[in-house]
Amino acid sequence: MTAMSEITELAARRLLIDYTRDMALSDDDPEQIVDRTVTDDAVWVTDGTALTRDHLVAHAGPARKNVTAVQMRIDDLLVDGHRFAARCCLSTEHRKLGHTVIEWILVGEVADDGRVRRIHQFGRTS
Fold it and tell me: Could you tell me the CA-to-CA distances from 99 to 41, 93, 102, 115 in Å, in that order?
């Protein structure tokens, strides 16, 4: 595995596991979580909707209000240089909705500094 592939794998795991958990459950400033995970010019598209940095930061408020537990399971993670693809499953305990499960497929690209530069993801509620 090349050095860049190793950086990309760590960045993808940090995005999927740490970012997901921290945005929902930590007391860390959401802006700091976003900034340490994605580049300033990141392109993030979820189910065809482009999300800006401000959208990502704003998502922490409702998530922290409603989510009481979160687990992201990575079923497949493929890495090639700066690029990655993943199939994963997000399980949450939600105050209003109860137990929720979303299956995700995503592809992305990591910058040289180890932050995510591009994400396109598609989700399906189980």
Answer: 34, 5, 10, 31
Which tens digits make up the pLDDT trace of 104-119? 999 999 999 999 999 9
Phi/psi of residue 114, nearest 5 degrees: 90, 5
Q: Provide the residue range defining the domain that includes 85.
A: 3-125
Cα radius of gyration (the chain): 14
Query: How many other C-beta atoms lie within 10 A of the C-beta of residue 1?
Result: 9
Between CA 42 and CA 35 the distance in angstroms is 10
Please count the structural domains in the chain: 1
User: Cβ(88)–Cβ(104) under 8 Å?
Assistant: yes
Contact 57, 68 (CB under 8 A): no
User: For the whole model, what pTM was predicted?
Assistant: 0.93
